[in-house]
């Protein structure tokens, strides 16, 4: 039997994901700043691409939080 859909803590989980994603982005940006002259152009591109995907994820997480807020009303 399937478990009932308990959405009570979805916003909390989404917010935790947002917090971790922002933390990872900041760490990547700090790494780029500190090691800019030591890393290859390919590595720089990979890190920048990863952060772009993180920005897209943040938009999706925020949209999900908005949806959750609308469904709880």
Automatic annotation (TrEMBL):
<feature type="region of interest" description="Disordered">
    <location>
        <begin position="22"/>
        <end position="73"/>
    </location>
</feature>
<dbReference type="InterPro" id="IPR017524">
    <property type="entry name" value="SASP_thioredoxin-like"/>
</dbReference>
<feature type="compositionally biased region" description="Basic and acidic residues">
    <location>
        <begin position="32"/>
        <end position="73"/>
    </location>
</feature>
<dbReference type="Pfam" id="PF19824">
    <property type="entry name" value="Tlp"/>
</dbReference>
<protein>
    <submittedName>
        <fullName>Small acid-soluble spore protein Tlp</fullName>
    </submittedName>
</protein>
């Amino acid at each position: 039997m399937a478990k009932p859909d308990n959405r009570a803590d979805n916003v909390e989980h989404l917010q935790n994901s947002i917090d971790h994603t922002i933390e990872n982005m900041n760490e990547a940006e700090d790494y780029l700043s500190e090691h800019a002259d030591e890393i290859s152009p390919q590595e720089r591109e990979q890190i920048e691409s990863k952060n772009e995907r993180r920005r897209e994820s943040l938009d999706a997480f925020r949209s999900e939080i908005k949806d959750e807020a609308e469904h709880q009303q």
